[in-house]
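Supplementary Methods, section 5.1.

A reviewer requested that the exact input to the structure prediction be made available. We therefore reproduce it here, unchanged from the version used in the analyses.
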Amino acid sequence: MYTQIDTDRLKKPGAYLLDDISLVSYQSANGSNTPKSVNIKTLVLEMNLYESLQGPGLSGNIVVADGQAIVSHLPLTGYERIEFKLATPGCGRGYDFSADTGHPMYIYKISDRTPTTPRSQLYVLHFCSKEMIDNEMKRVNRTLTGSIDQMVVDVFRNDLESTKNLIVEETRGLHKFVMPRLKPFKAISKLTTNAEPLKYDSSGMIFYEDSTGFRFRSLENMLAISGVARPVVAKFQQKPRNVKGGTGVTDIISEMQTVDGYSIVNQFDTLKNLSNGVYASKVITHDIFNKTFSEIDFDYNLYFPKIFHTEHDGSGGKVDNKGQLPLFNYKDGKMISDKPEGSLNFVSTTEKLQNDYEGPEGERTLPRNDAQKFSFKSQSISLDCKGFTGLSVGDLVSFEVPSYEPPGMDNPLDIDPYMSGRYLVYKIHHRISSNADVHTMNLECVKDAVRVAYPEENIDTFSSRENNDSLTYLQYELDEALVDGANTEGHNEIMA
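The structure derived from this sequence is encoded token-by-token as follows.
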């Protein structure tokens, strides 16, 4: 957290600690038991490191100015380890990719190799977590039983054979899944889709990696803790830098939470939300044994108050009126959430297929899972700020978006009432610039609720408000009329 920064060690925003950057070959050094390695820290112009709730592992790249022909002499083959440590001074959390105390990353690609002088070249080395390499060489081809969190641990430890830390949120029920030769990450993704957190009434669970290791947890756990809204770890704001507040001393913690720039990437996307079942969907179930079908509708407005969101009621509780979908009469007395045909899910509800194990209740979990995950993609902002290794994806932050009102308004707003507020950190891009000697980062932050509830309305906004004199025409009849008209006038203009 930003409030826990040791300001005696962090003297300026953007400072960083970076150990030697070593490339370690699969080859031995002169026939010894020690692998060949080379320290390239002085050759690195830029380093990029990526965290994401969307991807299963960490990844990154380095831009190398190579005047020593490392490509040929090491040589670089795509099977090297890269070892280094990166941290913010005064922060207890960082990235440890060393062999002695952490877990090295692995080179998998070289790109943009360009000559700069007759004796030097520039190229980009791409690296990723070892688990991402191993995932491409293994398959899960067996039956998994027990709770889904136990299955995730099983696949992670026994199929991926990972020795990294794994933080797991417990899930409901005992299940049985047959994995038909799926890659480990694909198998885990299938499990997350069917999982329900033990202590929350939601279905959206995520498997991802941050600087602490891998994590399997629900979106709602990122938003709440012990039955109340989870506090934010940073309060980002846009203001002039180096304001000493009359003390003569720069407030480092405040400076670290001052953004260099921002943009609103998405504020809403009605078509995608309708297509992805955020507002409403229909589940068609089939019981093979009893030969019955049924239909179950999902209503966003009914489900919204049951779970935690990025915004709370002011006291840390759930909200029922800050949804992304305004409450209004769309047409003929129906709201948007009353129209479930836009998104369909087909689910089998046949029981006792796996003896006493419960089948995943897809008729409940699938629409909830889709609605929650896709709702976060509707509202997103991008923040540029000074780098901090103490922040991870899955953390909550806040940001106040300016209102951009003209002067002289009767009821001026200091901030945007809907896009301001609490956000979930979805992606982090760390960037180390050797030339500028600074650590910056870009944050992609998302939310699933508005800070101030949208106005409610009962008027009918569509019925009898459009042109009702529309006609239907046949194309061939229009073509014939065009030809007849040209012949009547005595000249054939359509052949001109």
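The chain has a mean pLDDT of 91. These observations are discussed further in the main text.
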